[in-house]
Design brief:
Length: 253
């Protein structure tokens, strides 16, 4: 009827405007609205406009060059390389470089972050700046039984408050860096810095950090050293489990 000439995107924008469906900084939550509309259509409650044909852009392979070649070996204790800081990555060239480092050296490779996110380089500023690794914090997992039980969340409460939890989805110390206590130091810095950075970028401050550790590869020792709390294991159904099931192996939470 009234909105039949609108595209799905324009319809979502209109709904966000009329419902006041905005982020803490006042931006329309178009992606969330589109997901809700598609869910209602699947349930047979609405009929959305036909998807308009468009030319799909092929994603370019994420290559890397000399900028991400292995650096000179770095060995010692973290105290020998102070000050060690987290450098927030926000410019286009820095993001591209961060992506290439993670694609090249992290065993899971690079995947585009979902929702609100913040990349960091771990940097030593002794003498001249030297990159030591990468961190990523992004949207939390939809449903994690041991986490939700620890918080005391019902499914309804979780749906309205999930953005207050942020997930450490990538943690990389470069292979040529052998620095005692660096990993736990970086996690300690993150626990203090993620909140203010989220407030600045997205207009709200999260209250919990989470991560998943593959027990077949790691024990999570650096997280324990940084005072993270072990809650148990995931059910092994994958990270994005709201509407679709992706099989995975159980991870330490």
């Amino acid at each position: 009827g009234v909105f039949s000439k609108l595209s799905r995107f324009e319809l979502a924008q209109t709904l966000c405007e009329h419902l006041g469906w905005v982020t803490a900084k006042g931006h329309y939550k178009v992606d969330a609205c589109l997901k809700a509309l598609r869910k209602l259509e699947q349930l047979g409650q609405i009929q959305l406009p036909r998807v308009q044909a468009c030319r799909v852009r092929q994603a370019k392979p994420l290559g890397w060059g000399e900028a991400t070649d292995a650096g000179e070996p770095v060995a010692g204790s973290v105290e020998e390389f102070e000050p060690v800081e987290l450098e927030a990555v926000e410019s286009g060239p820095q993001m591209k470089l961060w992506n290439q480092y993670v694609e090249r050296y992290h065993y899971l490779g690079y995947q585009r972050p979902f929702g609100a996110h913040q990349r960091y380089f771990i940097v030593s500023r002794k003498a001249e700046p030297r990159r030591l690794g990468c961190l990523l914090f992004a949207a939390s997992a939809w449903a994690v039984a041991v986490r939700d039980e620890w918080i005391g969340w019902s499914a309804r409460v979780r749906a309205g408050r999930l953005n207050w939890v942020v997930n450490n989805g990538r943690f990389l110390i470069f292979p040529w860096v052998r620095m005692a206590n660096l990993a736990s130091r970086a996690l300690g810095l993150a626990a203090r810095q993620v909140g203010p950075d989220w407030q600045r970028r997205y207009g709200y401050r999260p209250v919990l950090l989470e991560t998943f550790v593959d027990p077949e590869r790691y024990r999570g020792t650096c997280y324990q050293a940084a005072n993270w709390i072990g809650l148990g294991r995931t059910a092994g159904r994958g990270r994005m489990d709201r509407h679709t099931r992706y099989l995975s192996t159980p991870k330490l939470v």
